[in-house]
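Hi R.,

As promised on Friday, here is the backbone we talked about, encoded as structure tokens. Could you run it through your design pipeline when you get a chance and send me back a sequence?
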């Protein structure tokens, strides 16, 4: 039997940790597979994916900047993908691609299982309203957080995300400039791409994190450094980057493809202890 073909498709993608993660999961499960990183510029995405399928590709992770486009080319979307408006996992079917989104579940698993956080009733602030924020907000609400405040540089996008989430009594878009008047939060999540783009973080008050509160950056490596430095100065009880979420969303994808749930702790430790801190993109 030929080796099963999988890939992560992004732009840029050369620093992606996904090939290493999936290779480790496959070794653990005794599955022979090939998992490569494929670079596709936005205008080439459809053609690259079609070529991958023609060459026998049966599953793919989709990363920046293609997650929204990937949702548009699927002929079936999971509920998570529909709510996120974005796909990070493609599964080949007889009739085309099935799309799922495991980012939100990956974040919740990392926070609850790895970091032992009880998310229930946490008053939560989500900074950012782009694709990453959209990917995680539904899963956070499902996990039982309390009120969710969303602030974003472009206020209309925060409003639009709140509209999509459709829980007006619980989800509150606010102006970024008003961040100092919102009180403190048990969970503060940075879902902006500011540091990834080399920009400064939005200015955040030092009293934003409640006592015993957690601060989470969805990025990892160098891109998470500025927010985590702020989180420490804000005396957050837990300062968490996105490496665990990355491993957990990969495990969720792996499970969908192979019907086996990989054990994630060893892979997480391997990446944490090696050069992951220098890696800035997935
Ligand atoms: P991603 O998929 O990483 O979320 P995105 O959809 O482009 O990428 O969204 C990027 C997010 O980071 C947005 O919330 C963006 O704010 P705008 O909607 O105002 O563009 C936010 N962002 C990016 N650079 C920023 C900066 N320098 N300051 C504040 N927010 C920034």
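Update: got your reply. Pasting your designed sequence below so it's all in one thread:
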């Amino acid at each position: 039997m030929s080796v099963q073909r999988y890939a992560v498709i992004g732009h840029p993608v050369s620093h992606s940790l996904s090939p290493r993660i999936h290779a480790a999961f496959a070794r653990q499960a005794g599955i022979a597979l090939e998992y490569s990183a494929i670079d596709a510029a936005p205008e080439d995405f459809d053609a690259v994916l079609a070529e991958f399928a023609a060459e026998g590709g049966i599953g793919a992770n989709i990363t920046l900047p293609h997650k929204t486009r990937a949702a548009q080319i699927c002929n079936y979307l999971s509920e998570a993908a529909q709510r996120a408006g974005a796909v990070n996992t493609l599964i080949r079917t007889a009739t085309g691609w099935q799309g799922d989104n495991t980012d939100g579940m990956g974040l919740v698993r990392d926070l609850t299982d790895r970091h032992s956080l009880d998310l229930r009733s946490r008053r939560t602030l989500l900074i950012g309203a782009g694709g990453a924020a959209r990917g995680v907000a539904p899963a956070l609400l499902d996990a039982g957080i309390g009120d969710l405040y969303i602030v974003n540089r472009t206020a209309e996008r925060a409003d639009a995300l709140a509209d999509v989430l459709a829980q007006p009594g619980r989800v509150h878009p606010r102006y970024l400039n008003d961040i100092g008047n919102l009180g403190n939060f048990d969970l503060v999540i940075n879902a902006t791409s500011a540091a990834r783009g080399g920009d400064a973080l939005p200015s955040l008050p030092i009293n934003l994190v409640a006592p015993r509160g957690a601060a989470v950056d969805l990025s990892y490596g160098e891109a998470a450094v500025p927010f985590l430095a702020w989180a420490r100065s804000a005396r957050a009880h837990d300062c968490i980057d996105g490496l665990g979420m990355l491993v957990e969303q990969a495990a969720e994808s792996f499970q969908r493809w192979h019907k086996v749930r990989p054990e994630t702790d060893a892979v997480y430790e391997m990446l944490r202890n090696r050069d992951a801190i220098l890696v800035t993109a997935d």
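One thing I noticed while checking it: The mean pLDDT is 95.

Thanks again,
M.
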